[in-house]
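Tokens as discussed.
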């Protein structure tokens, strides 16, 4: 058995009386809040005997304040109770620890005494030659060892009891802290920086929603213009990212549905896919021109670069429309192709793939054309997903309810009207269930 040192057992620090004093202060505060709540509710009841808009507003505000005060009263009540219980547990533990410290202080010297005696008789046994005396020394050593082991056992028992007392204090502190945390975190009152930020967003929600709407329009406008003015494509993607960022803030604070954020995030993803695919198609066009020039050169064609460049540019004949000031507008047919291909370079690629023949042969040429067509398919799918999701949301959330409101009662109450109404209401329920604040 290992030696148990007396300094392992020591008084438990802490001001139990001070903790109980704070607990009493919290409880008195809770009592004062409760009195205030009762006074407010009495005032609310008295306003019902009078007819006045001012009193109605006062009653409404008083009702709201009384609910918040009731929540606050519960917080202080729990805090007072938790601290009071911990103060009692600490005081009891300190009293037990003091008793164990005293017992340890009285017992520990006995261990040192027996150690000294054992050392003395052990040396005596090594020098004794008389058999009778040796037997006596041995018997005495056996008794000393027995008594020393008993003392050591007593100290070990004191140490175990002290450890249990300390653990009890820790458990009581953990329990009290848990009660305080539950009271603070579950009463709905705003305390954290996130609560403060959420409150600010709530106060400015209408302005932020208006900004979000404008940013959606700007993103849509830039996305359309970027089809005809490619340099605007990065700005359209940046606007979509900013819109999704603001949408995330509004959704995280419970001001809009997470469905709205998902739609904005989908716009970022699909615009990003389309932008990446368009860049790939531009690279394909460059590689395609290079391979065709090389092929014509190998065939001995004079000025192969001029021939291939002429074939690439030749497919753009008839693409120019009216001129508005210094701005050259595309022809109507070319504008339709650009819209369908989702970009000038994409539409140019499709014309090159279908109409140019100079140097257009061989497996490498077909591989490059296949890559370009695959990227065009990505653009088509991305646009269809974004448009489809947006239109489904607008139809179920806005258009069907508006249609049913404008429709005659006979149509609104018909089986078709009922089905449409149920579908729309079900979708709106999904949006509402997906509207929640982070941390709530």
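Sequence:
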């Amino acid at each position: 058995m290992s030696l148990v040192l007396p300094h392992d057992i020591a008084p438990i620090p802490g001001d139990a009386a001070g903790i109980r004093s704070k607990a009493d202060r919290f409880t008195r505060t809770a009592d004062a809040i409760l009195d205030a709540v009762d006074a407010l509710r009495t005032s609310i009841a008295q306003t019902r005997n009078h007819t006045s808009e001012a009193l109605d507003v006062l009653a409404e505000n008083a009702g709201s304040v009384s609910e918040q005060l009731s929540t606050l009263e519960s917080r202080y009540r729990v805090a007072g109770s938790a601290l009071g219980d911990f103060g009692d547990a600490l005081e009891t533990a300190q009293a037990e620890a003091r008793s164990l410290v005293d017992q340890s202080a009285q017992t520990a010297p006995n261990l040192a005494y027996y150690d000294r005696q054992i050392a003395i008789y052990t040396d005596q046994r090594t020098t004794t030659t008389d058999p009778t005396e040796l037997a006596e020394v041995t018997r005495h050593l056996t008794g000393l060892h027995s008594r020393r082991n008993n003392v050591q056992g007593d100290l070990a028992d004191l140490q175990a009891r002290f450890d249990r007392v300390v653990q009890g204090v820790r458990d009581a502190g953990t329990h009290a802290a848990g009660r305080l945390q539950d009271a603070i975190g579950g009463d709905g009152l705003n305390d954290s920086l996130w609560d403060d930020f959420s409150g600010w967003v709530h106060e400015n929600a209408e302005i932020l929603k208006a900004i979000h709407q404008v940013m959606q329009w700007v993103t849509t406008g830039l996305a359309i213009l970027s089809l005809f003015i490619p340099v605007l494509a990065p700005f359209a993607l940046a606007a979509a990212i900013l819109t999704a960022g603001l949408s995330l803030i509004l959704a995280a604070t419970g001001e809009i549905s997470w469905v709205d954020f998902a739609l904005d995030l989908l716009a970022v993803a699909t615009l990003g896919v389309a932008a990446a695919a368009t860049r790939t198609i531009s690279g394909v066009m460059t590689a395609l021109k290079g391979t065709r020039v090389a092929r014509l050169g190998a065939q001995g064609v004079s000025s192969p670069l001029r021939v291939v460049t002429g074939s690439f540019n030749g497919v753009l004949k008839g693409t120019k429309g009216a001129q508005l000031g210094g701005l050259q507008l595309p022809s109507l047919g070319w504008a339709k192709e650009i819209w369908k291909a989702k970009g000038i370079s994409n539409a140019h690629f499709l014309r090159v793939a279908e109409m140019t023949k100079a140097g257009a042969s061989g497996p490498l040429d077909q591989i490059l054309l296949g890559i370009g067509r695959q990227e065009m398919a990505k653009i088509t799918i991305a646009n269809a997903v974004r448009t489809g999701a947006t239109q489904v949301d607008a139809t179920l959330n806005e258009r069907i309810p508006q249609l049913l409101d404008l429709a005659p009662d006979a149509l609104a109450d018909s089986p078709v009207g009922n089905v449409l109404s149920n579908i729309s209401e079900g979708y709106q329920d999904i949006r509402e269930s997906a509207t929640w604040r982070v941390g709530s």
